[in-house]
Design goal:
about 210 residues; alpha/beta; Beta-carbonic Anhydrase, Chain A; 6-stranded mixed β-sheet; 8 helices; 6 strands; globular
Length: about 210
């Protein structure tokens, strides 16, 4: 057996013996009821980011979609499945909040700042096109003393929030006050989250 699979199996056994027994009733309840998450979080696929731990959410509370760079292609573009996630979360599950969560030291944002760094990965390079406007905004807004990587991370979150609004299912829910949007930047090393809300472009600590 390979070493990685062995480690994964150890984790499963630890869950089964230490975590599950204390929450067995909760797991059984959520399994026997329709899921009703209150929030959809669209975040990066980065393995260092764990949305359920970050939000201290219980099973059934958050619906999560992950991709490289926490992207939301504009409506009608090749979406990588994000459109189906949005439609299902809003129309079927009735989520009340949608959050776009970026993070510090994001490899996708670094790749945007280093043209050609993803040349050997054509699918990744094409996907990064959904954040090109954030790169332009970051260069326009950043002063010499700013951390450009932080600025582009924030601008990408704002850009993806604007892309969200192009989806009819989201636009309709927003107009009816059924859903709200926020943008997050998670500082992994500091354990801090900065947020911006509907209509704002400024990030503030929680």
């Amino acid at each position: 057996m390979d070493e990685v699979l062995h480690r994964l199996k150890q984790g499963i056994r630890r869950f089964q013996t230490e975590i599950y027994p204390a929450r067995a009733e909760q797991y059984e309840r959520v399994m026997n009821e329709p899921q009703r998450p209150h929030t959809l979080i669209i975040t990066c696929a980065d393995s260092r980011l764990q949305p359920d731990i970050l939000t201290q959410a219980d099973p059934g509370e958050i619906f999560v979609s992950r991709n490289i760079g926490n992207m939301v292609p504009t409506y009608g573009e090749t979406s990588g499945g994000v459109d189906a996630v949005l439609e299902y979360a809003v129309a079927a599950l009735g989520v009340q909040h949608i959050a776009i969560c970026g993070h510090t030291n994001c490899g996708a944002m670094k790749a945007l700042l280093e043209p050609g760094s993803a040349e050997a990965m054509p699918s990744v390079s094409a996907w990064l096109g959904h954040a090109q406007a954030a790169l332009a905004a970051a260069h326009a807004l950043a002063s010499p003393e700013d951390n450009l990587l932080r600025v582009i991370t924030e601008q990408n979150v704002l850009l993806q929030m604007s892309h969200l609004r192009t989806y009819p299912v989201v636009a309709d829910a927003l107009a009816k006050g059924k859903v709200h949007l926020s943008g997050w930047v998670y500082d992994i090393s500091a354990g801090q989250v900065s947020l911006c809300y509907d209509g704002s472009t400024a990030f503030h600590g929680v």
